[in-house]
Design brief:
Layout: E1 3-6, H1 25-36, E2 45-47, H2 54-57, H3 63-73, H4 97-117, E3 122-125, H5 146-156, E4 161-165, H6 172-177, E5 184-191, E6 215-220, H7 226-244, E7 248-252, H8 270-281, E8 287-290, H9 297-312, H10 322-329, H11 349-365, H12 369-373
Parallel strand pairs: 1-2, 1-3, 3-8, 4-5, 4-7, 5-6, 7-8
Helix pairs in contact: 1-9, 1-10, 4-5, 7-8, 7-11, 8-9
The chain binds zinc ion.
């Protein structure tokens, strides 16, 4: 299996600021743990991010927004900054913010290029998955929507793409980009928008026009737990993916659904996260994995190290190599066990009852392989 990993270390010069929950240094600690586990093949494909080009980014973003972002990045604040969602607490302007966004996007496009060229069958951009960015405004810590741009590179080459987003928050930017398209299936499982940003992602939102049925949302009640995820995957997500028969699977692996996150409350265990990774892998489809949210750094690092191991078909021992613990302690981050526990989290009855109603609704409305052939 040929794989490709984006090395995020050139991105560590950027910083959302000391009080922002989005910590770019988590990418460096992820790479360090991957390396400490011996999962970097010196002969293998490890790429540094390149900048997305303006024409590439304009496949989704408006010229005006990109111009405003570029000027702000250089310290020139234009009057329309705030209408583009920039300069807010969520989406700060910092030196090099344009290069940050365009590098993350370029890295995800590189993953698409590796798959399209046949050089790799699986690729991972841990810095990617910035799923809230919209055509003309930044949103939810996301300035440039790398996932959309990578999927567009794939569809322009004639590929059918399935996108699955397991971040705690609804993947609204990616859904928006492909809401009326039948060649991109978007699936988002997230904490219900009634309780968390961005407030969208209801089960009834199924796409529009040709895209009806190629968009699925599974909102979960707070406190969801592993049982709910397992049930949603078995009952809807995996059947929908199999029926869609994608050429490429793109997954957004935000790890803010993991137990202990400070912004969401979905109680997924790291074992449960690994279960989801294995389910993706077992679909046996060329696979691009992207990062995403995640605000407990030790959880993020462990979840994404498991992701890279899963792409490699490697089994990792649970004991974290001591060399990583020393590096992590510089940032006040500590973990000694990869999975943290041997127990999955159970789901309250109220969560499961609500979920069953959602699954019933989705199974009645989603596209099936048969209806696509008609
Ligand atoms: Zn999130």
């Amino acid at each position: 299996m040929n794989t490709c990993l984006i090395d995020p270390r050139s991105l560590l010069e950027y910083d959302f600021g000391p009080h922002h929950p989005f910590k770019i240094y988590r990418l460096g600690l992820t790479f360090n743990l991957i390396e400490a586990y011996g999962l970097i093949d010196p002969e293998g494909c490890v790429l540094s991010p390149r900048l997305a080009t303006e024409p590439e980014a304009q496949a989704f973003h408006s010229k005006g927004y990109l111009e405003c972002l570029r000027l702000a990045s250089d310290g020139l604040w234009t009057p329309n900054l705030f209408s583009h969602g920039l300069g807010s607490g969520d989406n700060p302007v910092f030196p090099g913010v344009y290069e940050w966004g365009m590098s993350v996007a370029g890295a995800s496009i590189q993953c698409a290029e590796e798959l399209l060229s046949g050089r790799a069958e699986r690729a991972f951009n841990p810095s990617g998955g910035l799923h809230h960015a919209m055509p003309s405004h930044a949103s939810g810590f996301c300035h440039v929507n790398d996932g959309v741009l990578a999927i567009q590179a794939l569809t322009e080459a004639g590929k059918r793409v399935a996108y699955v987003d397991i971040d705690a928050h609804h993947g609204d930017g990616v859904e928006h980009a492909f809401y009326e398209r039948s060649d991109v299936l978007t699936i988002s499982i997230h904490q219900t928008g009634r309780t968390i940003f961005p407030g969208t992602g209801e089960a009834r939102d199924l796409g529009m026009g040709e895209g009806v049925g190629a968009c699925l949302n599974i909102p979960l009640l707070p406190g969801a737990g592993d049982d709910a995820y397992a049930r949603a995957f078995e009952a809807v997500i995996l059947p929908a993916l199999r029926a869609f028969q994608p050429d490429v699977l793109v997954t957004q692996l935000g790890s803010d659904a993991v137990l202990g996150d400070i912004v969401a409350n979905l109680r997924m265990s790291l074992l449960g996260f690994e279960d989801r990774l294995k389910a993706f892998r077992d679909l046996n489809v060329p696979w691009i994995a992207l990062g995403g949210g995640g605000y407990d750094v030790a959880n993020v690092v462990r979840a994404w190290t498991m992701a890279w191991a899963t792409l490699l078909d490697a089994d990792l021992p649970d004991a974290i190599p001591p060399i990583w613990m020393t590096e992590a302690s510089v940032h006040g981050v500590a973990a000694s066990s990869l999975r943290g526990t041997n127990e999955r989290t159970t789901s309250p009855d109220s969560v499961m009852l609500d979920l069953e109603k959602t699954l019933e609704y989705l199974n009645a409305h989603r596209h099936t392989g048969e209806s696509r052939a008609m």
